[in-house]
Each structure stands twice: as C-alpha cells, then as structure tokens.
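Z., the sequence and structure:
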Amino acid sequence: MRTKGNWDAVTETDAIVALIALFEREGYARVEPQVLQPADVFIDLSGEDIRRRMFVTQDASGQELCLRPEYTIPVCLQHLSSHGARPSGYSYGGPVFRMRPGESGEFLQAGLESIGRNDVSATDAEILGLALDGLAQLGYVAPVVKLGDIGLLHALIDALGITPAAKRRALRAIVSGQGLASLAEQDGPSAQEHAGLLAAIEGQAPQAAKAFVEDILSIAGIATVGGRSAGEIAERFLARAANRTGLTDEARQVLERYLSITGDPDHAAYAIRSLAREAGLDLGPAIGTFEERTGFMAARGLDVSAFAFSAAFARNLDYYTGFIFEVQDPRRSNSKPVVGGGRYDRLLEHLGADTTIPAVGCSFWLDRIVGSP
C-alpha cells in the first residue's frame, strides 16, 4: 500500500518522471516507440485479452495498424532495428490504448525491458527488484508479490510426453484461467459430420489452420452462418479440433497436482521436486533455474519468504516463456496488479531476429498506482 506523505498529490506524469529517473540511473535508457504500430504483430503474438481490445485503423495503402496497446512489442521492434542481438536495457513512459468498459481507452504506463542478457536468473531478479524499488519510490510499502513460471509448466508438459495439440490446448486453458476442467471432450453428432475437416486442421499452427478453414468457407460461398462471420466460424472449428486431442488420465493427474502447488518460492521448489521424483519426471534444469532465480532475489535483499508462488498463475499475454510476476496493492478490492511482467525469450525471434534473444521486463499501471484503490 502507499504511505501518506509527499506522494499523496502525485500525478501520473510525476510518477513517470520519478520512475524513468530511477531506471535510467540503473542503465535503462528511455525510448518512446511510435503510437501507430503494425496490427498483425499484436494479433499474432499478444493474448486474446489484448487482441479483442485493440483500436485498429488503416493507413493510406490499406495496411492495418493499431494504436499501441502495450509497450513490450514496440520496444522489441525498435531494439531489433537498432541493436540486433546486442544487450540493451530500456525504460519508457507514455500512453497506451485499449478498450476498457467504463474506463478511458487511453491510459499511461511506465516500465522497463532488458533485452539480450544471458544471465537470465540475475536479470529476472533485477527486474523484480527494480519494480519494487519503483513502487517504494512512489511511497508503496508491503505490496503483495505473486510469482509464476511458464518455463516450469512447459518443462512439465514436455516431460509428460503430451502431444503438441494437447499441449497448446492445456496451455490455453491454464493461461485463460479456465483450468484443466475446461478440457472435457465435446463429443456429439456433429463431431462425425465434420471429422474430415477437423482432422485436416488438427496439429496445424493456429493462423495457418484458421486461414485454411476460411478458404474452405469462401470456396463454398459461405460468408456468415447464424450471424457468425467466416473468421468466427473458423475459430469454432479450431476449438473443436483442439478438443479431439485430450490428456491421458496420468498426465491430467500430474498436471492437476502441479497446478495446486502454492507457497513461497523455497516451499514451491521442494514441492515441485517431490512431484517430479514421484512421477518419474526429469525437471532438473527447470527447477534449477527456478532455485537460482530465488537465490539472486535473496542476494538483492528481497524477502522471498513473503512472495507467493502459484503454479497455476499465468498472465494474459501469449509471449511469456518463463518467470512471470504481478505486484498488487492490498487496498484494492479488485486484485488488479499495479505492476506486472515476465520473461519472453522467444518474442524477438518471432519478430524477425535470427536467433533466440533472452528478454524480460515489466509495466506499471499508473492509473491504479496514483488513483484511489
């Protein structure tokens, strides 16, 4: 929560100035990517929550653009155009644009991104430490810190030998907050009617599968069915195709046990090691990274015993690959984070980099920090 004091009358602009000054002292140079961004990048790589809330427009040539819905992808694109694979740290502060029911679609964010550093665990700890330092500079004490690890989840699913289609399906259910219960098979008469089409798109990349279904509908002269567009119909077929591949009972049980693990990072690491040993799974490297990160956090003076890890915790952006976190203000009844971030090691490769470039960052929601809880 925020203490009484000089920051009681702080504005969001004041907060940006203070945060940028802190981050620049730590070597994170300020950047300000363009407000207009290529829409297809966000459509392909952002989570559904952002995709459906973007403000989309076109330029004179017909290219689809969007108002910047967040900073991470624009900062990464700017980094690739000027630095390539060279390690760099960036800070930013300015407006982002998302449709928000009952709230302004334009709001201010600040944040920082570390791109290209290979000391992954140390950098993760640094980003979390700077996030808490930034909040402390704005008068916050004893915020609630929630941790997760998408890398551990990927490692567990891979160790279980789950098929790629089932893996995508399970990850989508977990990241969306629906959980494994939403993966129940959806059998019925129509499943047989469309068996050929479902088999054709099963296992394909989502964008390729959607384009295939839309082409089939176009050839058949189908534009809308029951008020649904061809794109929406394609999405339903994709969901149906995903439902054809389920989890084995053993894999489901192990996943459910993993997703129930909570506690401080040390307790969580012990519980995950015990689960891996009992299930006969090799999660050594992923758990080792988890424990190394915790050690770097403690070395920075962070009270890791006060942090809450949850194996089921996921953030609503598709590009996270490892460590994730959110910081909450305990005074806020809606549990929305005031800071959130994580590691996204494959994002720059998706954006055109020749090799995988490690990266991690976080953003501050200034309207939640400065505004009333």
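Residues 185-193 have pLDDT under 50 and may be disordered. Residues 186-243 form one domain.

Let me know what you think.
H.
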